[in-house]
Amino acid sequence: MKNLDLKNPEHSKQIQDILRAGVNTEFWDIIKQRLESTIDSLQDQLDSDMSGYVAEEYKIRNEVLKAKKLDRKDILELPRDLVKELDNPDFFKQDREEEVYDTAKTLEETIKRVLPKRN
């Protein structure tokens, strides 16, 4: 079996074919079911009564739950999004150093946005 490289434009078509076929398998259906279940659970938590939390805790908890939900939705769409990206000739020209974690700067910006200023 040939090792396919997502960064190699010559492998683009073969990777797309694998992704298209993969989303129609029982394997992906099981993964999807689990992700959808998790998304529903996160939504239930967002809809639940959070009156027991102080304002700062409420905001942080809400933001974390929303981010987790969005992350799971992104994973659900990943195969189809990747197929579309591989059709874009600029895909292979882009620097692929995507940040998985927040940098100190983005974390600081999030904290400032979410938490009220204290005197």
Describe this structure as you would to a colleague.
This protein has 119 residues and is mainly alpha-helical. It has a domain of 78 residues. The protein is 65% helix and 0% strand. It is built from four helices and no strands. α2 packs antiparallel against α3. The longest helix has 33 residues. The relative contact order is 0.12. The mean pLDDT is 84.
What is the number of helical segments per DSSP (H or I, 4+ residues)? 4
Radius of gyration: 19 Å
Q: Helix content range of the residues, please?
A: 55-70%
Distance between the termini: 62 Å
Quick one: biggest sheet? Answer: none
Helix-strand topology string: HHHH
List the uncertain runs: none
Large-scale geometry: flat
Number of strands: 0
Strand content: under 5%
The overall pLDDT average reads 84
- Structural classification: mainly alpha
Quick description:
The protein is mostly helical and 119 residues long. The chain has a domain at 9-86. 65% of the residues lie in helices and 0% in strands.
What topology emerges from the helices and strands here?
Layout: H1 12-22, H2 26-47, H3 55-87, H4 104-114
Features:
119 residues; mainly alpha
